[in-house]
Amino acid sequence: MARKLGVQYVCSNCGASYGKWQGRCSVCGQWNTLIEQVEVGTAVAGSSGRALKASDIANALKSRTSRLPSGLVEVDEVLGGGFVPGSVSLLAGEPGIGKSTLLLQLADNASKKHKVLYVSGEESAQQVALRAERLKISDKSLQLATATIANDIAATISGGGYELVVVDSIQTVAVNEINSAAGNVSQVTNSAQLLSAAAKSRNTALILVGHVTKEGNIAGPRLLEHMVDVVLQLEGDRYGGFKILRSAKNRYGSTNEAAIFEMTDIGMRPVDNPSAALLAERQASDGSVVHATMEGSRPLLVEIQALVNPTSYGYPKRTASGIDLNRVNLLIAMLERRTKLKLSDKDIYVNIVGGIRLAEPAADLAVCMAIASAAKGMQLKKNAVVFGEIGLSGEVRHVPFLEKRLSEAKKLGFEAAIGPRVRSGRKPGLLMPVTDIRSALNTFLEKD
């Protein structure tokens, strides 16, 4: 019978260890920093263990195995060609965003040619079966199990001969040797280590589902993200709009790719032309500007809407959906300082249509022109897309992927693109360059 491992409590601030839990660390004086961990036996260096057998890297390349395709081309592009055997991937996202739906589809697709196991710790087998019925999944080759004990899942991976295993989710499983509840920092860390070791020993691709905090960060210790090979984020509006799958960490491929999906009655479906879908219901009016953004290496046209009203209170209200509010406040302050716009007594609302979230600085010019357009009741003179980063002096700065943005605008029938000057070479025919925000507003805005 295996010896049950002991437990120690380690301070997350200074690293001091204790035999039992206490509220305050006596070494550093911090409160509530002691975390339960499994004790690891110490050994004299070199007394146990054996010398490693090394070989040249050419032999390792010869034994390299091919990737395991997910069944969805868009997901394979994000991964860099599919799942690598023996790799550990972490998929995180808000509750209800579609993580379980997407993974059940991937597991079903992969089970056509490979041995796949789907382990659910959050739902019963009947609940998973109901989702599978909704997704039109009836393939008997996909194996399903329910478990919340990490030891049992690791033993199944070690002895089952599976090529792909999905565990939904890492926050619901626990290690027998630790007495704390599932989801605890120690449980998440040790469960992930146990499952990863089992998967790598059997050359099995492992996918873990992770929860997120209210700030949008992956729940649990930061160590969890360092332990896995790939970190995938599923983002978007849980109540509608597009869902974007992007890679935050990838040891086997690029982190510049993104896949765009739409939730339907039969699951997540890739969107062939998201720009056209986002602009299909657009009505040209003041406060509406089309921005050419980049999702990874893929160009995307999104509508930015702004609404400016006189404030009814002493302090103006500023609200932003789909873009960082601090960035919007910075741009508003810059507009007041560098242009003749008076916005200190105005309520300002900015919205990115379609549930898309913009993080790149290239959206600055479009946001500023949308706010100015709404404040003055003016529209763009031309049917144009807008992009460009803006500095605090009001200058319009260069942005990457200029050709891709222009190509997407031309494909959807736009006549022009308002953006920064080209640093070198010939100016593209569609581009109408601007040097600063003031000249951009004076040149391209006109009354309805």
Question: What is the strand tally?
Answer: 23
Radius of gyration: 26 Å
Number of helices: 12
Query: So what's the CATH class of the largest domain?
Result: Alpha Beta
Shape: globular
Count of structural domains: 3
Q: Summarize model confidence as the mean pLDDT.
A: 88
Structural class: alpha/beta
- Under the CATH scheme, the architecture of the largest domain is 3-Layer(aba) Sandwich
How much helix, percentage-wise, in residues?
25-40%
Q: If you consult CATH, what is the topology of the largest domain?
A: Rossmann fold
Amino- and carboxy-terminal Cα gap:
82 Å
What portion of residues belong to β-strands? Answer: 25-35%
How many strands, what sense, and barrel or not for the largest sheet?
Answer: 9 strands, mixed
